[in-house]
Amino acid sequence: MTLYDIKPKFQDLLRPIVRMLFIRGVTANQVTVSAAIISMVLGAVLMLFPEPRLYILLPIYLFVRMALNAIDGMLAREFNQQSRLGAILNEIGDIIADAALYLAFAFVTGVCPWLVVLVVLLSWLTEFCGVMAQTLTGSRNYRGPMGKSDRAFVLGALGLLIALWPQYIVVANIVFGASAVLLAWTSINRCRSALEVKYA
Fold this sequence. Notes:
mainly alpha, 7 helices
């Protein structure tokens, strides 16, 4: 069970916004690129000014980013905007956004930088395993326990903790350590699922 499992209900809430964007001529690729750019800008701001109070921006934006990720997919599927370029932008945009947002934690005093880097690298690995499964089976794999939405929830909550209770910054290292283990588990699960598929 991951947050990805509640995605259909989340999409239903976003559907009126998606229709409005389509009517106004907004494309899926524009949403994808915009999300990546905003992520890089916010990540750069937090890296340049690693003030704990500013990390309140992370949970807010990570929720917005989840909405944007859902919106670009809905625009692509429901309004015939799917393309090879869109698929490339979606995958690359995700790993760029993850790196920009999550590496910002490494600049906070008291957070172990190598743990942050490890989580970012393992996040990339989970996405690679998901894409590899798609190459082998024809279906993108989203198995958890630490998929993209789950990472956003956990690290968004961590950003909130740092902003409101900076005296408990040591908790961040525990969160990143546990996240690294869960990400490795996620990568294994996604590879196993690809191996379980029986070919006709």
